């Protein structure tokens, strides 16, 4: 795996290539249970319409379809047309609901075909937005009266490896450097209730949080993939170094094989609100 060198013209900090798309699918599998729990608490059921904002590889759209069924509609809005089209083709081949994909920048879209929706949802999206409250205001506008607005975002406040592991220090240096340098949010999860209020959605009807404490061997490939996918954005900030990146990948793989290390993952925090 080489280190991607070119960052995205739309400012998205992760690279867009086959490795990153697969990493998003692996990440989605890891957090599937937490998202299923949130969709169920939010009351998603047969015949409903729903929108996933920043739908990526379509993994949440699949979970939505399992709940709304053949009479329900699932729409994904995604700025990356290639990824969105691939997701739509996969979902249609699997079936189970009516699917649509809208290729758009959420910040530019005034309305979404098929809306307003029973559920408007996003995952790992607000943490990439300079103005998450403006995004939530739009999501509210795209939701039917009596429908639900929901979001699940990472909170990186506790991510750690125990015992202390030098490779994790290098991961944090690059990861936090890119997030801070590009104005991204490391605390998006915990800020959801305040952002719901600020967007006029009101205090959440409920919140849900999940974190995992797992052998580093189960998390190392994800950490290496994130590091690799952020390399081009790090280079733009002058904080990436090819030799350091190679050393990081080697050290992380060695630590993963060691068997002593455990990883405390980011916390996935969800919030939902049934709107009047
Ligand atoms: C971290 S990924 C999460 C994907 C998916 N929600 C998931 O949880 O698996 C964020 C996604 O948002 C998309 N995205 C970023 N900015 C966007 C924008 N302004 N409008 C629409 N999609 C956007 C990215 O292309 C990417 O696919």
Describe the fold and architecture.
The protein has 276 residues and is an alpha/beta fold. It has 9 helices and 10 strands. It has helices at 18-30, 32-41, 59-68, 81-94, 132-141, 166-181, 188-198, 220-236, 242-258; strands at residues 49-53, 73-78, 98-103, 117-123, 143-155, 160-162, 206-210, 213-215, 262-264, 267-274. Strand 2 (73-78), helix 4 and strand 3 form a beta-alpha-beta unit. The longest helix is centred in the C-terminal third of the chain and has 17 residues, at 220-236. The radius of gyration is 19 Å and the shape is globular. The mean pLDDT is 96. The structure holds S-adenosylmethionine (SAM).
Summary keywords:
276 residues, binds S-adenosylmethionine, seven-stranded mixed beta sheet, 43% helix, Rossmann fold, three-stranded antiparallel beta sheet
Would you kindly provide a brief summary of this structure?
With 276 residues, this protein is an alpha/beta fold.
Tell me the structural class. alpha/beta
Give the CATH architecture. Answer: 3-Layer(aba) Sandwich
Q: Give the domain tally.
A: 1
State the assembly state of the protein chains.
single chain
Ligand list: S-adenosylmethionine
Order of helices and strands: HHEHEHEEHEEHHEEHHEE
In DSSP terms, counting alpha (H) and pi (I) runs of 4 or more, how many helices? Answer: 9
What name is given to the CATH topology? Answer: Rossmann fold
Q: Tell the overall outline.
A: globular
Helix content: 40-55%
Q: Whole-number radius of gyration?
A: 19 Å
CATH class: Alpha Beta
Flag low-confidence runs: none
């Amino acid at each position: 795996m080489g280190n991607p060198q070119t960052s995205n013209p739309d400012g998205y900090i992760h690279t867009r290539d086959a490795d990153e798309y697969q990493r998003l699918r692996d990440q989605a599998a890891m957090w599937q249970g937490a998202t299923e729990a949130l969709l169920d608490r939010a009351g998603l059921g047969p015949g409903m319409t729903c929108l996933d904002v920043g739908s990526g590889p379509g993994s949440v759209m699949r979970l939505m379809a399992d709940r709304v069924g053949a009479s329900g509609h699932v729409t994904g809005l995604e700025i990356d047309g290639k990824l969105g089209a691939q997701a739509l083709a996969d979902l249609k081949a699997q079936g189970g609901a009516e699917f649509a994909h809208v290729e758009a920048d959420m910040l530019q879209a005034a309305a979404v075909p098929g809306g307003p929706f029973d559920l408007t949802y996003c995952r790992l999206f607000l943490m990439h937005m300079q103005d998450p409250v403006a995004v939530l205001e739009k999501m509210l506008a795209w939701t039917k009266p009596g429908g639900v607005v929901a979001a699940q975002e990472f909170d990186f406040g506790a991510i750690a490896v125990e015992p202390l592991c030098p490779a994790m220090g290098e991961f944090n240096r690059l990861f936090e450097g890119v997030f801070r340098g590009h104005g991204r949010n490391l605390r998006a999860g915990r800020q959801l209730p305040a952002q719901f209020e600020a967007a006029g959605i009101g205090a959440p009807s409920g919140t849900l949080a999940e974190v995992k404490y797992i052998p580093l061997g189960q998390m190392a490939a994800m950490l290496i993939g994130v590091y690799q996918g952020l390399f081009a954005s790090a280079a733009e900030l002058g904080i990436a170094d090819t030799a350091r990146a190679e050393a990081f990948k080697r050290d992380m793989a060695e630590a993963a094989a060691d068997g002593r290390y455990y990883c405390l993952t980011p916390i996935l925090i969800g919030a939902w609100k049934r709107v009047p």
